[in-house]
Write a structure and sequence with these properties.
9 strands; alpha+beta; 2 domains
C-alpha cells in the first residue's frame, strides 16, 4: 500500500498487487476520514486503467469526477489532482513534475491538466465502493470495525484468544483483533418470536507486536473464506468462475486444484476488500495508540512539572 504525499491535500492511499507500486497494478483507493470514523474504499477493474494513477501516486486531473458536491453525490467518482507549478520537498513524483513543467515552458507535448472538451472517453469511476466504519467508539467494544459486502456483515473486533509470551505480552491482549463474517439464518421457528440465529465464521486474525519496527502479523484463513464464498456468496463465486486461471469449472472442488482455487480467490474483489480493511484497521489502531501514548506522556510530564 502506497500513501502518496501531496502538500495541502490528503490523497487516497493506493493498494497495489505485488510487492511495490512499480511492478504491480493498482487495485483500489483508500480514503481516510478524520478521527478514524470511517474509510472509503473504491475498487474495481477500472482502478487499473492505464494512466489513471500518475507517477505521483494520485489520480490524474483528466479523471477528476467534479467538484465537492458532485463527488459527494456519487461516491464512485474519483478525485483528481492537478500538477502544480511548484513542488515542496518530499512530495512524490519529482521527475514527473519537472517534465510537466518543462513541457509547459516549451509549449510542446500534452499537458496532463488540460482536458479536451471534445474527447470521447469519460472520467473513470470506481466499479464498487465499500465503507469501513469504526462502530461504537465510546463503548466497551472500542475495537470494532464494520463493513458490508455482498449483503454480508463483516466485523474486525477485539479478541482475547491470542496469547503473547514475550515481554509486555500481557498488555498486547488489548490489541489483537479477528475478522468475523456474520450471516443471518433464514430459518425461523413458527412457535417463537425470536429473531433468526446468526452464523459467525472467523476468517482471520491480526496479532499485534511489541517490536518497534513491526506492527504485527496478519493471518487470513483462506479455507474459511473459500467456504464462505461457496456457501453464502454466489456473486463472488461467479466472479471466481469467470477467472480464466481456473480453466475447466467442473474441477473446482478437486483437491489437486486447491492452489488454483486460492489464486483465483485472492484475485476477487472480496479478498481485496478484506486486505484493504485490514490495512485500514491496523493503521487506525496504531495511530490511536500513538495518540493515547502522547496524551499519557503529556499528563505525566505536566503532573511532574506541577509537582516540582
Amino acid at each position: 500500500m502506497n500513501t502518496p504525499y501531496l502538500a495541502f491535500h490528503l490523497p487516497p492511499s493506493v493498494l497495489y498487487q505485488g510487492t511495490n507500486r512499480y511492478n504491480g497494478a493498482p487495485l483500489l483507493l483508500i480514503h481516510n476520514f478524520a478521527f478514524w470514523r470511517k474509510w472509503k474504499i473504491q475498487l474495481g477493474p477500472s482502478i487499473a486503467t492505464p494512466g489513471l494513477i500518475d507517477p505521483r501516486g494520485v489520480v490524474c486531473w483528466r479523471h477528476n469526477g467534479g467538484d465537492k458536491a458532485e463527488l459527494k453525490a456519487d461516491d464512485r467518482k474519483l478525485k483528481g489532482y492537478k500538477v502544480r507549478t511548484w513542488r515542496l520537498w518530499c512530495e512524490h513524483g519529482k521527475d514527473y513534475v519537472k517534465n510537466v513543467k518543462a513541457i509547459r515552458k516549451m509549449g510542446q507535448g500534452p499537458d496532463p491538466d488540460v482536458v479536451e472538451t471534445q474527447r470521447k472517453d469519460k472520467p473513470v469511476t470506481a466499479d464498487e465502493v465499500v465503507y469501513l466504519r469504526w462502530t461504537n467508539p465510546f463503548s466497551r467494544q472500542t475495537r470494532k470495525y464494520h463493513f458490508q459486502y455482498a449483503d454480508i456483515d463483516f466485523y474486525w473486533k477485539g479478541t482475547g484468544s491470542i496469547r503473547e509470551t514475550r515481554a509486555c505480552g500481557l498488555f498486547l491482549k488489548w490489541n489483537h483483533l479477528k475478522l468475523v463474517a456474520v450471516i443471518r439464518s433464514s430459518f425461523k421457528n413458527e412457535y417463537t418470536t425470536r429473531e433468526p440465529d446468526k452464523l459467525k465464521i472467523c476468517l482471520g486474525k491480526y496479532a499485534s507486536s511489541a517490536a518497534v519496527k513491526k506492527s504485527g502479523t496478519l493471518e487470513l484463513y483462506d479455507a474459511s473464506i473459500w467456504r464462505l464464498v461457496c456457501e453464502h456468496m454466489p456473486p463472488v463465486l461467479q466472479q471466481i468462475q469467470s477467472i480464466s486461471i481456473l480453466g475447466d469449472t467442473k474441477h473446482y472442488y478437486d483437491e489437486d486444484n486447491e492452489t488454483r482455487r486460492m489464486m483465483a480467490l485472492k484475485r476477487t474483489h472480496l479478498y481485496q476488500v478484506i486486505v484493504a480493511t485490514a490495512m485500514c484497521m491496523i493503521q487506525g489502531e496504531r495511530e490511536k495508540r500513538e495518540v493515547v501514548k502522547a496524551i499519557l506522556l503529556e499528563l505525566i510530564t505536566g503532573g511532574g512539572g506541577a509537582a516540582g
